[in-house]
Amino acid sequence: MFPRGSAKITTMKLIYDLDFHTLTEILTQWNEPAYRAKQVWQGLYQHLYNSPEQFANLPKSLREKMVEEFTFTAFTVKTYLDSSDKSTRKTLFQLPDGNLIEAVLMRYGDPADDPHPSPSPASGRGAKKRRTLCISTQAGCAMGCVFCATGQLGFKRNLTSGEIVAQVMYYAQMLKEQNEVVSNVVFMGMGEPFHNYDNTMSAIDRLNDADGYNFGARRFTISTVGLVPQIRRFADEQRQVNLAISLHAADDDERLAIMPVNKRYKIDDIIEACKYYIEKTHRRVTFEWALINGVNDTPEVAQKLAARLKGLLCHVNAIPLNPTQGYSGEATSRQRADLFKETLEQAGIPCSIRMRRGIDINAGCGQLAGAESKNQAHKTVLL
Question: Which among 10, 64, 154, 332 is most buried, taking Cβ atoms within 10 Å?
Answer without folding.
Answer: 332
